[in-house]
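Task card 7
Instruction: Convert sequence to structure tokens.
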Amino acid sequence: MAIMYNGEVCVVLDAQHRTPGNLRAFVQVTLRNVRSGRSSDVRFSSTEKVDVVPLVAKKMEFSYKDGEDYVFSDPETFETVTLAPEIVGEAKDYLVENTAVTVTFVEDKAVQIELPSSVVLTVTDAPEGVKGDSATNVQKTVTLETGLTVQVPLFIKTGEKLRIDTRTGKYIERA
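Output:
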């Protein structure tokens, strides 16, 4: 959700409704200013009115990294959008070429990206599992093509493709 706050468009990152003891209820909100990129915590009373700004979500694909920035393209119109690392955030660990994502726009400015629930990544570095270590569910740490490190079973080798959960960052299965 995006709202108008102090004459600026802000994206709501987190909202909690609170009713402390004998006080009046309020809503504690974390907002990110679209123009400046700054985040702030704001408290609204339960009777306060806010203006909602419409959001537009577009399906896009990750194309390439341009210096620090990330470039996404619309698969239908081939228009490109360049996003700063602050907007991409932790999603950078799951982005490989042609990864489908949902980019949210407020007033033609990209404010957030949403990953699919899982992505397929290739293992670039997997140490050998030691024989005799397989008595129980023993795991080892491997490095994926994006630089992300995850815990996987001992039988995973370099070059294999793995399905990784983007919400938890954990190994799901071989792809």
